[in-house]
Write a structure and sequence with these properties.
Radius of gyration: 33 Å
Structural class: mainly alpha
Helix content: 55-70%
Number of strands: 0
Number of helices: 7
Amino acid sequence: MNLEELKQLAAPLIPPYAPEQWPPQPWVWWLLGGLLFLLLCLFWWRWYKRTRTRRYAYRELEAIHERYQASEDPQRYLYELNLLLRRIAVRNFRREKVAALTGEDWLDFLDWSRGRKKGKDPGFREGSGKVLAWGAYQAEPDSFDADSLQLLVRAWIRRQT
């Protein structure tokens, strides 16, 4: 052996490099992906359970509208709309507060529970919803726009559920 080679052996050792922190190992990616998936599933499930009543009410509202278009019976349409609104109102508010309301008091309650007025329709008391006060109980209800009433009730349901 050469003397120079022996001198190199006496030099201090070079410590090894620390392993790289990025990118992480594949199992870390799998774990993070699984946790993210579980979190998304949890949020979706909570949203799904929270909006169950709204989806039911929308289906019922569409069925009422389809029956009205098939039969052209305004009394039945207004009665079924009022019934749907009352069922949701009794569910969300005290029965004692809602069940006895009729006429203008009922429309005032619907406008109050609707909150801010959005869109072109001024609401239940002055807008297309005023026919709900007594329309179902008249032999010939006043003429009304079923489509705008449908949109107004849909907006109210959205606000309540």
